[in-house]
Amino acid sequence: MKKFLALSLILGSAVMFVPPAEAKTADLNNSTMTIAAESSPQRYTQRRNRRARVRPNRRARVRVVTRARIVRIGYRRYREVVQYRYLPNGRVTVRVLSRTRIR
To answer: CB neighbours of 55 closer than 8 A, spacing ≥ 6?
Structure first.
């Protein structure tokens, strides 16, 4: 019973302090302006990727990097010059250009 009374008091006080909504009448001068504004065509702009605009074939290129690395095969150590090719589909191919024994 106490809960019901407390809830009804809260709802009653909320009704007293909430302002009522008023309906506005349409003005003739205002309605002609809105009709003119609605009849104009809407502009549609599409933002594109700047990189795609500037260099469209950038992603289609193969990137080639040449590096040297030291590898150990058995008891011997070699310095290899290796070429890495980064393909546009995400694959990487590795080609050994030269191998010289060190030490």
So the answer is: none
For 65, residues 6+ apart whose C-beta sits below 8 A from its C-beta are 83, 84, 86
C-alpha torsion sign, points 88, 94, 95, 100: positive
What is residue 75's three-state secondary structure?
coil
Low-confidence ranges of the chain (pLDDT < 50): none
pTM: 0.42
Q: DSSP assignment, residue 90?
A: S
Q: What is the DSSP string of 11-67?
A: HHHHHHHSPPP-PPPPPHHHHHHHHHHHHSPPP------HHHHH-TTSTTSPEEEEE
Among 103, 100, 69, which Cα is nearest to 83's? 69
Q: Which residues pair with 86 in a beta bridge?
A: 63, 92
